[in-house]
Write a structure and sequence with these properties.
Helix content is 5%, strand content 37%. The protein is mainly β and 391 residues long. The radius of gyration is 21 Å and the shape is globular. The chain starts with a strand and ends with a strand.
């Protein structure tokens, strides 16, 4: 760990709201009032030299988000990545290789603090969500990467400099990706309102010799929720990134007088709507079936025998854990090739990331979904993996 003030916290919004966070202060020199720890190492830890750098440009903006043909968020906030043709549609999914430095320039295109709404799902012990102040500053705070917390944390923590970005300004973050994995990106400029409005994203760290390609055009592409990842002397892998969102307040047909009514629950953790990647496949209460061949949620297509990787990033705001399953498919729970074969994973807490890998079996439409049937599945946490017959 490099010197600076390191934030520890619970990830769920209500936990942060109620005070479950603190600081771990790492000094860069000996302190008279702190005896040395046994087994300590001397010197200040050094980050690797910046020999290989992957650069991305990300914009934060206010935007009406159409979660489906019937449900929108007029108060939406989004991160978008600049692709070859300009800003791309969300959600924000960036990629890099293990062993690379990632330089992300974040441009804040907000005009100022976004408006609050009295119809937002309330936090614990909150009288009126309409009295909440929504920050106009934004940031990108990563997990599982190496960086200098004093300058590149995407937060304003303790004695560290403020690494959030004010409206109309820009800032470049520098992070080192040591190992392959899935990194959740959040705006820590406002840990309460920003996730509920849509400010979250993912960085997928691929293997050091991997290259991602657009599954539609076949061109090399380092952004986007879907990719075909190729490595020398290895099978290609079809990837899908799912960013799970909850605690949203959506509106019928964009009408600010018609908020979507929460399903009945005794727990405030179930309030608000759910989505994957700014899209929801909410079921009609009088016809709650999964028979829609074209749900709004992301679709992954593949062939029997293809290698598939589903990267899960739990950007949800609530304390309730979730689970994830894919109908008709099984995978190694340990990701080592030696573990138990399962078809469901659980303990998906807010802020966690996991990867499900399997070889596609059995042609047809296979549902991916949460295991929470009433407050999750019916609110739109499901989609399709389409395994098509080999021509």
């Amino acid at each position: 760990m490099v010197p600076g003030d390191h934030l520890w916290s619970f990830s769920a919004g209500n936990d942060l709201w109620l005070g479950c966070w603190g600081l771990l202060r790492l000094h860069d020199r000996r302190q008279a009032d702190l005896p040395p720890l046994p087994g300590r190492t001397t010197g200040v830890p050094q980050l690797p030299a910046r020999r290989r750098v992957r650069r991305h440009t990300v914009r934060a903006r206010a935007q009406v988000i159409a979660y489906s043909a019937l449900r929108t968020d007029p108060y939406g906030l989004v991160f978008t990545a600049d692709g070859d043709g300009g800003p791309e549609d969300g959600p924000l999914v960036l990629r890099c290789r293990a062993g690379e430095w990632v330089e992300v320039t974040l441009i804040n295109e907000l005009d100022g603090p976004p408006p609050a709404s009295p119809l937002d799902p309330a936090l614990m012990n909150e009288a009126d969500p309409g009295d909440r102040t929504v920050s106009g500053r934004v940031s990108l705070h990563p997990t599982l990467l190496d960086f200098d917390v004093r300058t590149d944390d995407g937060a304003h923590v303790g004695r560290n400099s403020d690494s959030t970005v004010k409206p109309g300004a820009a800032r470049t973050y520098r992070w080192y990706a040591a190992e392959p994995g899935v990194v959740l990106l959040r705006s820590h400029a406002d840990v309460i309102s920003h996730p509920r409005r849509g400010l979250a994203g993912v960085l997928v760290v691929e293997e050091a010799d991997a290259t991602p390609y657009d599954p539609d055009t076949g061109r090399e592409r380092w952004t986007g929720e879907r990719a075909v990842v190729r490595r020398p002397d290895a099978e290609p892998v079809r990837e899908l990134v799912l960013l799970a969102q909850d605690g949203l307040r959506l509106y019928h047909d964009g009408d600010l007088t018609q908020p979507v009514t929460d399903l009945f629950s005794d727990s405030p953790d179930d309030a608000g709507q759910k989505a994957y990647n700014y899209r929801t496949a909410a079921l009609h209460p009088l016809d709650p079936v999964l028979g829609d061949p074209h749900p709004p949620t992301p679709l992954l297509t593949c062939r029997p025998g293809d290698q598939v990787a589903v990267h899960l990033a739990i950007a949800s705001h609530r304390m309730r854990n979730q689970c994830f399953t894919v109908h008709g498919q099984v995978w190694d729970a340990s990701e080592t090739g030696l573990g138990w074969q399962v078809s469901t994973i659980g303990a998906l807490a807010s802020g966690s990331t996991r990867t499900v890998r399997f070889r596609a079996q059995h042609p047809g439409d296979h549902v991916y979904r949460t295991g929470n049937l009433h407050w999750g599945l019916s609110e739109g946490w499901w989609g399709l993996i389409r395994i098509e017959e080999t021509p």
